[in-house]
Amino acid sequence: MSLLNDIIEKLRTKGCKITPQRRIIIQSLLKLDKFPTALELCNDIRQTNPEIGLDTVYRNLGLLVNMGIVNQINLHGKDTKVFELALGEHHHHLICLNCGTASCLDYCPVDEKELQKTVGLRFEIIGHSLELYGYCQKCKALTSLPQRLK
Ligand SMILES: [Zn+2]
Ligand SMILES: [Zn+2]
Ligand SMILES: [Zn+2]
What we know:
By secondary structure, the protein is of the alpha+beta class. The protein has helices at about 1-15, 20-30, 40-50, 55-65, 110-120, 135-140; strands at about 70-75, 80-85, 90-95, 100-105, 130-135.
């Protein structure tokens, strides 16, 4: 599990304490190879650690997101967030509105320096997130899908 150790090391250098819960959450994120919700993560974790509650998972996930260890991806129209380990470069996600699957897009179209010029002094930009909504290849074949978001 050297990947786990790398992540733990990254947390340490950021001055973040490695609690057993955080280690377990990271382990579970490594194990689940899709984009789990907090609830799915919690269910996975509880198979081996039944004492860990959803509150704990939420709280620690939030912290890991703030530390840049975990990416949070917002699904459209639902109050659902999914998570992935932030292993590679900063990137964005394509989200299918029909089946809810997310996939990574290894590209960032956002020029923060340009945006900062537009925003001026009233706000200092320190980061951004961006999700792209549409239909995956499988769902595109269905005819009853709306063509445009309102
Ligand atoms: Zn789809
Ligand atoms: Zn991703
Ligand atoms: Zn970006």
